[in-house]
């Protein structure tokens, strides 16, 4: 089979990223370019473009009007096609495969070729993830029209967690209602956790099926995952991504009755709803008006960390509260998963923007769980830049039975491209 050009699309709430790969069936993808439009929720939007590892556009304010994810993707596609120094994409017909990150895949256990039937099924799942799936499906629609010769593939954040045992994924509610309404723990960030599992296994010299991990994907959306024998055993997010750890604007797990005491109109539709996107006030509060932004006024965890360690900072008290709260919630999941894995843990893994960049958070978490045998190495933990995909920041002294502490630079676009390259159905 000949090589194909693959676009790996990751649409977030405020950004769209496209990674471009040359792929050959059964072989590891080779990245040739990456482009991103960010700032969709705080205009003006900006464009970043990297080709062959060199920055072509660092951060350029977008002149054209970019109102949503579809506009952003159109701009990114135009940028790639118009680049004379990217000969692999001279026209839309040069794109062979397009893979899309879809947050909620329901009961799908692997990537799916997007057909009319698949698309309708994903649309029906929008009510489970109204703030996430709709943006991605808008780009899917655009790609079907704009790239008619390409194969479209859906990769799901929830598919990695299809191995979670029934007694863990089941909610103690009426089973008939739960089944008919698809109410159970699904879990998310699964594409990231799949990448983390393979990368950590390679670093530790183990097969994935021999590996037990507690992995943390910490960014504006944050979650934890217990990985047993290379497969998801439990995860902090549930029916939707709002459960579990708090994030930049998400509450994380709270008393289910809290929202009814928060406001009297929580059951009504939010003004942000559209004909395609039905969002209740409760969903808007828990997803968009909570988290550390509600506590501190900022979604920038770097600012929170800096102010939390500076007693003289005017916002020190609020920032320290948010920092300490986040550390406490993370440690709670680590302790729970350590017991669930019966103490058989090869490594604790930090990933995601905060997990990779915040040495102070890593140090605070590992200090609090030191009773479980984890230990941080200050010299390695404090390095400003990670040089490899996987780096060790824990002390490996005291024998190899001590659980390791790793940082993984996760790559969801690569993981999606790899999955497509290995599946004959997409060729």
UniProtKB/TrEMBL annotation:
Any single biological process term in GO: acetate metabolic process
Residues annotated for Mg(2+) binding in this entry: 10, 412
UniProt binding sites for substrate: 101
Listed SUPFAM superfamilies: Actin-like ATPase domain
A GO molecular function held by the record: magnesium ion binding
Co-factor requirement: Mg(2+)
UniProt keyword annotations, A-Z: ATP-binding, Kinase, Magnesium, Metal-binding, Nucleotide-binding, Transferase
Key word Ribonucleoprotein present: no
The UniProt record lists the keyword Nucleotide-binding: yes
Entry annotation: catalytic residues: 157
Top-level taxon of origin: Eukaryota
Pathway as given in its UniProt record: Metabolic intermediate biosynthesis; acetyl-CoA biosynthesis; acetyl-CoA from acetate: step 1/2
Protein name, per record: Probable acetate kinase
Organism of origin: Triangularia verruculosa
């Amino acid at each position: 089979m000949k090589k194909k050009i693959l676009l790996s699309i990751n649409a977030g709430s405020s950004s769209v990223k496209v990674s471009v790969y040359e792929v050959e069936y059964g072989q590891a993808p080779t990245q040739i370019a990456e482009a991103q439009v960010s700032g969709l929720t705080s205009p003006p939007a900006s464009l970043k473009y990297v080709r062959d590892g060199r920055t072509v556009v660092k951060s350029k304010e977008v002149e054209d009007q970019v109102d949503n994810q579809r506009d952003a993707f159109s701009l990114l596609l135009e940028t790639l096609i118009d680049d004379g120094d990217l000969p692999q994409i001279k026209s839309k017909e040069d794109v062979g495969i397009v893979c899309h990150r879809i947050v909620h895949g329901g009961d799908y256990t692997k990537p799916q070729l997007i057909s009319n039937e698949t698309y309708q099924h994903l649309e029906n799942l929008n009510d489970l993830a109204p703030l996430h799936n709709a943006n991605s499906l808008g780009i899917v629609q655009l790609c079907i029209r704009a790239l008619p010769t390409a194969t479209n593939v859906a990769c799901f954040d929830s598919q990695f967690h299809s191995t979670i045992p029934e007694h863990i994924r089941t909610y103690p509610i009426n089973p008939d209602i739960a089944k008919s309404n698809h109410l159970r723990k699904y879990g998310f960030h699964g594409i990231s956790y799949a990448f983390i599992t393979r990368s950590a296994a390679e670093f530790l010299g183990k097969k994935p099926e021999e590996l037990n991990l507690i992995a943390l994907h910490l960014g504006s959306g944050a979650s934890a995952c217990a990985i047993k024998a290379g497969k998801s055993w439990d995860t902090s997010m549930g029916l939707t991504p709002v459960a579990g750890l708090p994030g930049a604007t998400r509450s994380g797990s709270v008393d289910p009755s809290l929202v009814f005491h928060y406001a009297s109109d929580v059951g009504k539709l939010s003004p942000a709803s559209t004909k395609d996107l039905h969002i209740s006030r409760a969903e808007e509060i828990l997803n968009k008006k909570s988290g550390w932004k509600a506590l501190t006024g900022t979604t920038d965890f770097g600012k929170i960390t800096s102010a939390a360690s500076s007693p003289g900072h005017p916002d020190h008290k609020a920032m320290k509260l948010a920092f300490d709260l986040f550390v406490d919630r993370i440690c709670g999941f680590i302790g729970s998963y350590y017991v669930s894995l019966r103490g058989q843990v090869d490594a604790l893994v930090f990933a995601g923007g905060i997990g990779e960049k915040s040495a102070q958070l890593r140090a605070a978490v590992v200090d609090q769980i030191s009773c479980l045998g984890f230990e941080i190495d200050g010299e390695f933990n404090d390095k400003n830049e990670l040089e490899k995909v996987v780096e060790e920041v824990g002390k490996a002294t005291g024998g190899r039975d001590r659980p390791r502490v790793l940082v993984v630079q996760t790559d969801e676009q690569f993981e999606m491209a790899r999955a497509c390259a290995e599946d004959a159905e997409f060729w």
